[in-house]
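Name: Myb/SANT-like domain-containing protein
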Amino acid sequence: MDKTREGKSKHFRWSRPMERMFLEILAYEASEGNKPPATFKPSSFVQVAQVINEKFETECEPDHVDNHLRTIKNNWATIQKLRVKSGFQWDHNLKMITVVRKEAHPTHEKYLNKKIEMYDELALVAGKDMATGYDGNDNTTKGIEDHSRFNGKRSHASNKDDRFAMLSKQIGEVANAIKKTSQNQLDVAELYKKVMEVEGFDEATLAYAFDYLVDKERVAKVFIVKSVKLKKL
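Structure predicted for Myb/SANT-like domain-containing protein:
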């Protein structure tokens, strides 16, 4: 990390409410297409700093936001490693990493056997451009559709993002049929099977889509009904 920038921003203390605001704004920015493959646009950092200053009457600068994003990305990387590590289990419904002997992992204790707050926002902000359709008001369908319409310039390396945007768009269309679904309990095993049948996406991307659908049960029910269409992606 640039030592000058680190020194400049190390005196800024992020409270929990500030971090929630940080994640909410950047998650929305990502869903609007303002997150190129590498990181966010400078204007996004400026916006976060301005809102933090206005709401909390502090002196947050864009560099503080940029540097805090590095911390968030490191935390996200740790979460993803723990999810697949031997001896750990991932609870899709609760967004929780479970382990039998929590005390045996003191370094990672804050991530274990407790719900990971704002998991969807973290995925948008720190993940590799995998959209969950966040729009700041839990209007999931609108956020997904907006993100899928983003037509910014993409390099060859971002083809995976284009494919995921296609999947997101289809999920958005699926949501239009929500009112027609039954009130039966969601069959998670059946949902997993249907998601994994979708062609054109790697296993990691489909696993992320599965996590999203489990969290949004009504959309998941419609997904099962419309899965034939989704297989044509």
